[in-house]
Structures are given as structure tokens and as C-alpha cells.
Amino acid sequence: MDRILISGGNRLTGKVKISAAKNSVLPIIAASLLCPFECKLEGIPFLDDVFVICDVLRSIGSEISLNKKSNKIIIKSDNISTIEPPYELVRKMRASFLVIGPLLSRFGRCRISLPGGCNIGTRPIDLHLKGFSALGAEVRLGHGYVEASCKKLKGAKIYLDFPSVGATENIMMAATLSQGETIIENAAEEPEVVDLSNFLNSMGANIIGAGTDTIRIEGVKELKGTVHQVIPDRIEAGTYMVAAAITQGNVVVENIILEHIRPVIAKLQEAGITVIEEQNRVKVIAEDFPKSVDIKTLPYPGFPTDMQAQFMALMSIAKGTSIITETVFENRFMHVTELKRMGANIKIDGRSAVVEGVPRLTGAQVKATDLRAGAALVLAGLVADGKTEISDIHHLDRGYVNIVEKLQSLGADIQRVES
């Protein structure tokens, strides 16, 4: 496996352009299954997860053309040959489970293995299945598979016990071709849900309320092909903003939607970092060590769980003591052990981490335990004394486009090497 080597201490300066959102493009690719016509997606981030979801669609009969030069994908699903994606693909990535909603809605049946993905905690699919059952599907679970079938889905009122992004998206896609109106209450409000809704509406769906806690879907008989531009990745943007802060840098982060990164901006400013907002970019300037801040992860518009690890790296060198509370995933502190190998002073107390800032981190051999943990270790390596070697970087390939090259362009001493 490849590794990342970092010699810390360089101050980051310059500009970095943010790629499209991984967590947006994956459900949108799955949603293209809802119609037999050509869908063109623009601004695609060519990540390992994108290749996996494309392989899932190909395995059931979709035709997919990828153009890496123009960052476009063309999908046509007029010749679906099976409603059961292969286990060996689905187990690679949790987002593969998002094909069940479109397949059930369009073909009345789907059989799929239980999903895989990062081991950051329990992410049950019960809310997905609850929604399908409410829409009239017969759902069976056994031997590691989920099978759902129906003659025709019918609109229903569905209350989610937790505002799950995946469940909101899957139910919304399933309801698009159902009979009558579906109302999802306590729905996830994330920007990625709004982007999926916009994509579906451009195909001819009738969805209102995405971005609020109540989404209404009036079922339609059929959908058409469309062209769609995917939104920028707010987590990638936040990661580079923290990179500027942790290295006492001066970095312009381009191609962002300001509203999507408000929690990150607020916490950086609270930590004493200068953040200058412009129309579709921010300038992050840090002239000293950050001040300690407390963080509590929450569903959007709260502080994103996907930025928790990166902020923990920043707080590791902050002045004072921070308390970071994780409320979304119960097993999302796996990066703590690795940060402590680099000299961080962190203690875990249940769902909270007490982080006492230290004057400096030191380079070490560490392992990326999941996607965002990998990002946190890269950030820590940028500021650590000496050399940091990060293994298991395939996790990073799932969520960051050209992270090594982008950091190099900002002046980081970082390289990717083959083992």
C-alpha cells in the first residue's frame, strides 16, 4: 500500500480550489437509476468511492462514461439486467445501499447485501427500511441481505427518529415514482440532501422542502434525463481551512458555498483565526497558535461530524483545553490513539474528548483508521517536528481529490510513496 510522507513546519500559502462534494455525487449517481434516459453529471470528483458506485451501477446494466479531463459522467440506465448488485462491490462502501430506493421505486424489487464502509460507529439501516415499509414495500432481512418488493409504492407520512442523511435520501428517491404524496418529517437538512432534491426535480420530480425538516414528495409517473452540476465539498473546504490555521498560514479556499461552511467559519474565528469571506471563497489567515474552543457535533446546520477529527488536530496545539463532544457516531475517536503517538494530550471520557494543547507535535509513524482520521493525521503532520509517515491512505483516496498535490501547491513538504 502507498504511504504519505510529510516533513512538518512549512507555512501554507496560496490558493486551493475545492472539488465537488463526494457525499452529494454518490446519491445523485444512484438516483440516475430512476429513469431510462441519459443523465449528465458535471464537476465530478474522481474518487475511489465514485468509481465504486459507478461499478455498482455497471454491474446491474447501466452504461457509464467517465471523462476525467472535463470531470463529467454520463449515465444511461435503459437496460437494467438485474436488481441485485454483487456483494463484493456493495461491501466496499456504505453509499452503495442508496441504490435500493431507486430500484424499488422503478422496478418494484431490489435485493442487496448489508453495506460496508468506514468503521466509525453503528449506522443502522432501520430508518431506511422503516420508510420503505411505510411506502408499502414488503421488506425482508436475513442472511446478510435486504430484499424489498412491492407492486407499487404509495405515498405516506414518515417520521424519522433521527435525521439520517442516508435514510432521507433513500426514502426521497423511493417516493419520487410512488402514487400520491409522501411527507418525510424530521428529515436531514444537509446541503447534500438539497442537491439530490434539485437533481431529482430537474428530472421531473415534484419535491419541495429539502433543506428543512419536512420534505414533501408528490409522486410522478416517470422521469426524464437531465444535466446537473454537483455542489462543492464543504468538508474538503473545511479541511483546507484548518490546514491554513494549523500551519499559521495564509490560504484562499476557492469554489465554496459560504452558507455550507458557517459552523467551520464560526469555530475558526472563535479560535482566533482570521476568516475573510468573499462571494465564493474565503481567505484564512493565522498568525499565532489557535485558542482552545469547545465543539459538539450535530446534524446540519450544526458542527459537522466529518470535521471533528480535523479540529481535534488543530486543538492539539491550541492554547488551553478543549472539550470535543461527538453526538453523531459513537466510534469516531479512533484517530485519538494516532494523534497521541504524535505527542497530542487527549483523554477520552465517553462521547467526549478532553484535548489539552501542547507546544508542539512530533512526527511519527501513524495509520489512517478512516477517511477523516486520515485527514486529521495529514494536518497534524503538516505542523509536527520531523517526519510523519501515514499508512492505510486508501481511506483518504475515498474522499479527497489530489490531496497531496493540492497541499504541495500551498508549500507543504508532502509526498506519496509506494510501499
TrEMBL record:
What is the recorded function of this protein according to its Swiss-Prot or TrEMBL entry? Cell wall formation. Adds enolpyruvyl to UDP-N-acetylglucosamine.
Query: Which Pfam families does the UniProt entry name for this protein?
Result: EPSP_synthase
Q: Where is the active site?
A: C118 (proton donor)
What chemistry does it catalyse, as a reaction equation?
A: phosphoenolpyruvate + UDP-N-acetyl-alpha-D-glucosamine = UDP-N-acetyl-3-O-(1-carboxyvinyl)-alpha-D-glucosamine + phosphate
Q: What is its EC number?
A: 2.5.1.7
This protein is called UDP-N-acetylglucosamine 1-carboxyvinyltransferase
Pinpoint the Enolpyruvate transferase domain residues.
Answer: 7-407
Q: Mind telling me which GO cellular component terms the entry cites?
A: cytoplasm
- Quote the pathway field: Cell wall biogenesis; peptidoglycan biosynthesis
Binding of phosphoenolpyruvate: at which residues? Answer: K22, N23
| 2-(S-cysteinyl)pyruvic acid O-phosphothioketal: residues bearing it | C118
Broad class of where this protein is predominantly found: cytoplasm
What family does the Swiss-Prot or TrEMBL record give for this protein? Belongs to the EPSP synthase family. MurA subfamily.
* Keywords in alphabetical order: Cell cycle, Cell division, Cell shape, Cell wall biogenesis/degradation, Cytoplasm, Peptidoglycan synthesis, Pyruvate, Transferase
Q: Name one GO biological process term.
A: regulation of cell shape
From the Swiss-Prot or TrEMBL record, state where the protein is found.
Cytoplasm
Question: What is the primary gene name for this protein?
Answer: murA
Q: Which residues bind UDP-N-acetyl-alpha-D-glucosamine?
A: R94, R123, P124, I125, D126, L127, D306, V328
Q: Which PANTHER family match?
A: UDP-N-ACETYLGLUCOSAMINE 1-CARBOXYVINYLTRANSFERASE
Q: Which organism is it from?
A: Caloramator quimbayensis
Query: Molecular function (GO) terms listed?
Result: UDP-N-acetylglucosamine 1-carboxyvinyltransferase activity
